[in-house]
Design brief:
Layout lengths: L4 H4 L40 H14 L20 H8 L1 H4 L11 H18 L3 E3 L5 H18 L7 E5 L5 H8 L3 E5 L9 H7 L4 E6 L12 H10 L3 E6 L11 H4 L3 E4 L19 E3 L11 E5 L2 E5 L16 H37 L4 E2 L9 E4 L1 H7 L3 H10 L6 E2 L8 E4 L7 H20 L1 H5 L12 H6 L8
Parallel strand pairs: 2-3, 2-4, 4-5, 5-6
Antiparallel strand pairs: 1-7, 6-7, 8-9, 10-11, 11-13, 12-13
Helix pairs in contact: 3-11, 5-11, 6-7, 11-14
Bound molecules: pyridoxal-5'-phosphate.
Length: 482
């Protein structure tokens, strides 16, 4: 194991070379307030170029990504990111654009944004999209701002509540709260679906919207969605669709057809652009026609003389991000959508659902499965059997999976399932890989029965062993102590 970069530093060991200063004759002088000036040079590591390269390559090898192996992180959709998308985003005509260029000189980029919007509309069953938001949570924020603006515009000022099911992703209540809404939790029934009776009881003239994801975070399809939509609409509320993870329905069903008024997608999940440590995100927001005036500006329009940015949108909630969103991410997602086409997206969805049900079926003998029904792209298993019988927790199981070379699934979420292991295999894994994962989890269940200590102390094979997560969060050490 190597030392951190500071420990490798050798005084005078620097290896950089800068070009000669070409502004010397002008004598650049900046007036900097004395109090902002350093008294001493900063303590920086001194290393040659090759040492710096080794340091970062070594760090990259310690990380685990979808290019290293199976990554069944439920709700996060860690699918393979086709490398051809990187090629597309790196094309000089896209990569070297400047956001301040005049419209006439960026017609190709505007056309791509225009077409990407059209594809999003088609996939979501919506009328217009903004591509500005930089992540899923940012999309939620944008969507609820639009809903807020809509009610305000109609002088319907009492709508201060957002309904959120108890199985929802944490960003849903967080977003509503950030915008000053009161969050009202809607219960799930024994099937893991929205409890219609409770929804009716929660509905009132103070409700601005229901935020829902379908399939929900248990991977179950809300089959009463039309009735749910009718209840909310009858009460004057709107329906927000959290489409961060669309893998369970993409190409097969459309939120717009289910009655949703506003939605966001995560291009960095369903549409295969890298995320997590791997890249910036994009969370486009789509709306039905009656809400399109409130979308962030500008939108891309197609006129006779070419594509243009339309800022003339008086009811717009304004900009939600600098310039036009994470353009490179949109290029990658566009390349993905075009490569697969409608039938390809549908097939990806069907394979994702098949893979999830395959795992669910083969794990049910050893693990408690929260809802033993056909699931969509993900399902929730649980370590509660192992906890009760062997004193082994879901955390132990997750850590042990790392010794078998797998990234653990999402754990302890959704909150309504005890000891949850939320598993999403996605469509890009082969049957062989799924079988290896099943074998590893079955082996771990056997270890739990026969040798639980090996699980309590896992992982055994990683550079960093089990960390004290509470201490790491409360007392983070963020700088080199030397
Ligand atoms: C990932 C996810 C989000 C948040 O998306 P970010 O891009 O991480 O902000 C919201 N809802 C659901 C259901 C998700 O899976």
């Amino acid at each position: 194991m190597s030392k951190v970069i500071f420990a490798r530093s050798v005084a005078g060991g620097g290896g950089f070379s800068l070009p000669p200063c070409d502004v010397a004759e002008i004598e650049p002088a900046a007036e900097i307030n004395r109090e902002f000036l350093r008294a001493e040079a900063p303590l920086l590591p001194e290393l040659s170029e090759v040492e710096v390269v080794r340091h970062y390559v070594e760090l990259s090898q310690r990380a685990y990504g979808v290019d290293n192996g199976f990554y069944p992180l439920g709700s996060c959709t860690m699918k393979y990111n086709p490398k051809i998308n990187e090629w597309a985003a790196r094309l000089p005509g896209f990569a070297f654009l400047h956001p301040y260029q005049v419209e006439e000189s960026v017609q190709g980029a505007l056309e791509l944004l225009y077409r990407a919007e059209k594809l999003c509309c088609e996939i979501g069953g919506m009328d217009r999209f903004t591509l500005q938001p930089a992540a899923g949570a940012h999309g939620e924020l944008t969507g609820l701002m639009i809903i807020k603006a809509y009610h305000r515009h109609r002088q319907d000022l009492a709508r201060s509540k957002i309904l959120v099911p108890d199985s929802a992703h944490g960003t849903n209540p967080a977003t509503a709260h950030v915008l000053g809404f009161e969050v009202v939790e809607v219960k799930s029934n024994e099937e893991g679906l929205v409890d219609l009776q409770d929804l009716k009881a929660c509905m009132s003239s103070e409700v601005a919207a229901l935020m829902l994801t379908n399939p929900n975070t248990l991977g179950l399809f809300e089959k009463e969605i039309e009735e749910i939509a009718a209840v909310v609409h009858a009460g004057g509320g709107l329906l927000y669709y959290d489409g961060a993870n669309l893998n369970g329905i993409v190409g097969v069903a459309r939120p717009g057809d289910m009655g949703f008024d506003v939605l966001h997608f995560n291009l960095h999940k369903t549409f295969a652009t890298p995320h997590g440590g791997g890249g910036p995100g994009s969370g486009p927001v789509g709306v039905k026609e009656f809400l399109s005036d409130f979308l962030p500006r500008p939108l891309v329009e197609k006129k006779e003389e070419g594509y243009c940015l339309d800022y003339d949108r008086p009811l717009s909630i304004g900009k939600v991000r600098s310039f036009y969103g994470n353009f490179g991410v949109i290029v990658k997602a566009y390349a993905y959508m075009m490569a697969l086409g409608g039938p390809g997206l549908r097939e990806a969805c069907e394979l994702a659902v098949l893979n999830a049900n395959y795992l669910r079926h083969h794990l049910q003998e050893d693990y408690h499965i929260a809802f033993k029904r056909l699931c969509k792209h993900e399902f929730v298993a649980s370590g509660q059997k192992q906890l009760a019988e062997n004193g082994v927790s879901t955390l132990d199981i997750a850590k042990r999976l790392m010794d078998y070379g797998f990234h653990p699934p999402t754990v302890y979420f959704p909150l309504i399932v005890k000891e949850a292991l939320m598993i999403e295999p996605v469509e890009t894994e082969s049957r062989e890989r799924l079988d290896e994962f099943i074998a590893a989890l079955r082996e771990i269940a056997r270890e739990a029965r026969e040798n639980p200590d090996i699980l309590h102390q896992a992982p055994h094979s990683t550079v960093i062993k089990r960390v004290d997560e509470v201490r790491a969060a409360r007392q983070p050490i963020l700088r080199w102590p030397g």
